[in-house]
Amino acid sequence: MKISHKHIALPLMALTMLYTGRAIAQEENKTTTVITTTTKTDSVKSEEKQVKINVSVGKQDYDDRGKEIKYPRIFGGLTFTRIDWGFSRLIDNGSFTLSDENKFLEYGKASNFGFDVAQFGVRTGDATKVYISTGFEWNYIRLKKNVVLDPDATPLAYTESDIAYKKNILTSTYLRVPLTFEWRSRKNHKGDRAKIAVGAMTGVLLKGSQRLKSSEMGKQGFRDNYNLASFQYGAFARVGFGSMALFTKYYFNDMFENSPDQKNLNNLTFGLTLGF
Predict the structure, then answer these.
(1) Going along the chain, which residue ranges are E strands?
(2) Following DSSP, what letter does each residue of 136-180 receive, concatenated?
(3) Which of 3, 87, 119, 215 is the 20 to 30 A CA-CA neighbour of 79?
(4) Rounded CA gap, 9 and 16, in Å?
(5) 210 within 8 A of 168, measured Cβ to Cβ
(6) Where do the domains of the chain lie?
(7) Count of CB atoms within 10 A of residue 178's CB?
(8) Local mean pLDDT, 10-residue blocks, the chain (276 residues)
(9) Per its UniProt entry, which superkingdom is the organism in (predicted)?
């Protein structure tokens, strides 16, 4: 039997079209962050190399394949972005100095860490979008004094220990749910934009813990809510360029609940955001 070029070409064309269709379909569900490096030459022209990193799954608020973008554009899905890392300050009745009732909470350093894992929203135009997201947030307070919090006491109570702790950390873990309004500028010659985001946030307490470390007792860990606010709420702002930003958050609620001595003790955080 004689096989012609047509018999070979047609199956190859079909396989090629099938493979291309699958690749495009898979590409619809991926968000890519483009990192561009520029290599300058002796001439005016420059050569750009792009490395793509997948960071999200779901419908996105932009199209990077040259298709026309129509607004409003709904987007949403799983993600791993808006990674916050920064410092915290306790504000006692409007002051950074703790009152006598709260001296036992004096800290050497306090920090905040969090990120988003899901989002849903609408881009109303090239410059603006609004979305709600959810993720996790941790607050760490490294206490100076050798105090052990009472897990069974309400209001908040503590005992002073004779042990000199090398580490004494009070930790709170929240499920966070921020609502964000975001504005961005036009692209510059490298494709980056300036961005401003403001919004309101809420959070539900998942757990509290106190971690201790000493020469006498080694490492110890105790898990309890320690009268930490079961529900937190506040406001935030981010200002950045490209994929990085500076952030600040202020929590309107008292840090502890059912504890009169800790009334009007609030938390302020500020730091750096990656994946903005």
Answers:
(1) 30-40, 46-59, 73-92, 107-123, 128-143, 147-149, 158-160, 167-184, 194-214, 218-223, 231-241, 244-251, 265-274
(2) EEEEEEEESS-EEE-TT-SS--EEE-SS--SEEEEEEEEEEEEEE
(3) 87
(4) 11
(5) yes
(6) 55-274
(7) 24
(8) 46 44 42 42 40 54 66 94 97 96 96 98 96 98 97 94 96 98 94 96 97 96 96 98 96 96 97 96
(9) Bacteria
